[in-house]
Design brief:
Mean pLDDT: 95
Strand order of the largest sheet: 2-1-5-8-9-4-3
Largest sheet: 7 strands, antiparallel
CATH class: Mainly Beta
Distance between the termini: 38 Å
Number of strands: 11
Order of helices and strands: HEEEEHEHHEEEEHEE
CATH topology: Pnp Oxidase, Chain A
Strand content: 25-35%
CATH superfamily: Electron Transport, Fmn-binding Protein, Chain A
CATH architecture: Roll
Structural class: alpha+beta
Number of helices: 5
């Protein structure tokens, strides 16, 4: 099948998020202007550079995480392992601004080192970020997109020592990430293999 992106696709559900999948989950912690912690998962998330290390998440409208990052200039990414899936899902509820999702999800918060916002203590890894930019792209047909892209440079990285192999690698299989797909679907890893680039 083929359909133009600005026309109806004729399917019962939009396939876009299922095609661009699986995606890592950006479990973003921030502080609001009053110092109240916020924690929310974002399915449009990824690393975009390793020199310097830059992460991005995209927010549909200026939701709490994006607004808090804009107000305070920082945010933290927390790794979502399968063991934390229920807490992650709970933190996705539509709480009012000023509600502490760490408490609502039963999660212990650990202090940041290079940022003021806390991190998820049980996460296999966390990355503290200072805000670089918030970009709201232009649409082809004019006007602004509904999503804003939040870019942060990583200033500190926490790794659970149990996730480091004897060879000194981060053990992705042991960290057991859950990844976002389309619809209400999530996926987990069942195999990891290595391929070396030609040349």
């Amino acid at each position: 099948m083929f359909y133009r992106a600005d026309e109806p696709h004729g399917l019962p559900h939009n396939p876009f998020k299922a095609i661009v999948a699986p995606r890592p989950i950006g479990w973003i912690s921030t502080l609001d202007k009053n110092g109240v912690p916020n924690l929310a998962p974002y399915s449009f998330f990824n690393g975009v550079s390793d020199d310097p290390i830059i992460l991005m998440f995209a927010s549909g409208g200026m939701k709490d995480s994006a607004q808090n990052a804009a107000d305070t200039g920082e945010f933290t990414f927390n790794y979502v392992s399968r063991s934390l899936k229920d807490e992650m899902n709970q933190s996705s509820a539509g709480f009012e601004p000023g509600v502490n999702e760490f408490e609502k999800s039963g999660l212990e918060a650990a202090p940041g080192i290079t940022v003021a916002c806390p991190r998820v203590a049980a996460a296999a890894a966390s990355m503290e970020c200072k805000l670089l930019d918030i970009i709201t792209p232009n649409r082809l047909e004019g006007g602004k997109a509904t999503y804003s892209i939040v870019l942060g440079q990583v200033t500190g990285i926490h790794i659970d020592d149990a996730m480091i192999t004897t060879e000194g690698r981060f053990d992705t299989m042991k960290a057991d990430p859950i990844l976002r797909s389309g619809y209400h679907d999530y996926v987990c890893l069942d195999e990891l293999f290595e391929m070396v680039r030609p040349g």
